Amino acid sequence: xxxxxxxxxxxxxxxxxxxxxxxxxxxxxxxxxxxxxxxxxxxxxxxxxxxxxxxxxxxxxxxxxxxxxxxxxxxxxxxxxxxxxxxxxxxxxxxxxxxxxxxxxxxxxxxxxxxxxxxxxxxxxxxxxxxxxxxxxxxxxxxxxxxxxxxxxxxxxxxxxxxxxxxxxxxxxxxxxxxxxxxxxxxxxxxxxxxxxxxxxxxxxxxxxxxxxxxxxxxxxxxxxxxxxxxxxxxxxxxxxxxxxxxxxxxxxxxxxxx
Length: 259
Description:
- The chain has helices at about 10-20, 20-40, 50-60, 65-75, 80-100, 105-110, 130-140, 145-155, 160, 175-185, 215-235, 245-259, and strands spanning about 120-125, 165-170, 190-195, 200-210.
- α2 crosses α5 and α5 crosses α11.
- It is of the alpha+beta class.
């Protein structure tokens, strides 16, 4: 025999409170209101064609090919068709506002912060023993052992060991400060002298260093970063009054009054 569990709005709100998610939810609501207000002031309009295109892209991103797939996704997220259109509209509005506010500042910001967008592909092994790390560093430089061999011998985590300590492509801000300077001063491919940190002694192989190009992808990244910072400042500059408790106890008050 199947069981049915009913979850009320007050249950959801209480769970949000107990899981400390209310501040994030309140900030998201405030952010959306700020976007709507700023867009209205700027005279920004979202057309039905733009909503249709963005909606198609969102469905494609979520692999909602068939109508049934879309309806199932909406049901899972407790959204109506109108809710979906509002969701898409809000995304388009935010992007248009971001482009309006910061589209003209991208080039200046990029050249002022160009070093922040230099990226490096690295591999790393972390040691507890600095002397051992130094010994292996010199052995790699002399060609007595390769970095992949060091990784296979000294990385404990199986997945990381299989990838020889591969860290992917990262920017300066993604590295520990004491590591970034050495990594971006390297001449790839090169192993750099072990670097001691609170976490351990890093032995790092620098595979590539790539100078940034202001293409469309990076352009949108910069606009998004500038917009996020701006929106965060806007939200922090206002006083937010929430009525969660009032909303949840009001029906109870009305019920008591009717008895």
